[in-house]
Design a protein that fits this description.
The complex is a heterodimer of chains A (119) and B (111). Chain A has no helices and eleven strands. In chain A, strands 2, 4, 5, 6, 9, 10 and 11 form a seven-stranded mixed beta sheet that branches. A four-stranded antiparallel beta sheet of chain A has the order 1-3-8-7, with no helix packed on it. Chain B is an all-beta fold and 111 residues long. In chain B, strands 1, 3, 4, 7, 8 and 9 form a six-stranded mixed beta sheet that branches. Chain B is globular and about 40 Å long. Classes of the chains: A mainly beta (119), B mainly beta (111). At the A-B interface, strand 5 and strand 10 of A face strand 7 and strand 8 of B.
Chain lengths: 119, 111
């Protein structure tokens, strides 16, 4: 059974960096079959795809966030991570990690973690 | 890239069939057979219900079906049940640059 679990701070100050980690069990982030994505959800913006990483380290980001986002892989811990720089209140959202078939079809999701941007 | 357009709400009585739409453009829904649908209950993560327009993942009820015509995709729920009351989101591939764009979401109410 594939499971994903997000972890990281629930509160980030404006202009700082939001950092989250997704721990995967039941599958390997080193698999050549799947991509690993971050998605967020806020009342004002709905669901928004942030970006993905492939086992080779290749990444793709939402053009609207590209200048502030980095997604990385840690195969030794079977994890992938999200860094979002220079956050504002508009980045307040529930952040999900998800397994992605690459077209995009998100077949397994983490439970989500609420990140609030506030001083 | 704008979000795909979905009706804010759809309702039906138990046993009925309902259909909700997901309107896109020639740059996303109309150009690729890569539309997926997600069900989300309050406080829970979205759950994949349909992918590649018409395919159902293992374990998803066959009461759920998907289709597409032109720039608009649709999700039909037949034999509506109380447990189907949830929010539903569509998602479409939108090219290598934008990758995935979600719909605005439809709240399904079982009367």
């Amino acid at each position: 059974q594939v499971q994903l679990q997000e972890s990281g701070p629930g509160l980030v100050k404006p202009s700082e960096t939001l950092s989250l980690t997704c721990t995967v069990s039941g599958d390997s982030v080193n698999s050549d079959t799947f991509y690993w994505s971050w998605i967020r959800q806020s009342p004002g913006r709905g669901l928004e795809w942030i970006g993905y990483i492939y086992y080779t380290g290749r990444t793709s980001y939402n053009p609207s966030l590209k200048s502030r986002v980095t997604i990385s892989l840690d195969t030794s811990k079977n994890q992938f991570s999200l860094n979002l720089r220079f956050v504002t209140a508009a980045d307040t959202a529930i952040y999900y990690c998800a397994r992605d078939l690459g077209d995009p079809t998100f077949d397994y999701w983490g439970q989500g973690t609420l990140v609030t941007v506030s001083s | 890239q704008s979000a795909l357009t979905q009706p804010a709400s759809v309702s039906g009585s138990p046993g009925q069939s309902i259909t909700m739409s997901c309107a896109g453009t020639r740059s996303d829904v109309g150009n690729y057979n890569l539309v997926s649908w997600y069900q989300q209950h309050p406080g829970k993560a979205p759950k994949l219900m349909i992918y590649e327009v018409t395919k159902r993942p293992s374990g998803v009820s066959d009461r759920f079906s998907g289709s597409k015509s032109g720039n608009t995709a649709s999700l039909t729920i037949s034999g509506l049940q109380a447990e189907d009351e949830a929010d539903y989101y569509c998602c479409s591939y939108a090219g290598t640059e934008t990758f995935g764009v979600f719909g605005t979401g439809t709240k399904v109410t079982v009367l």
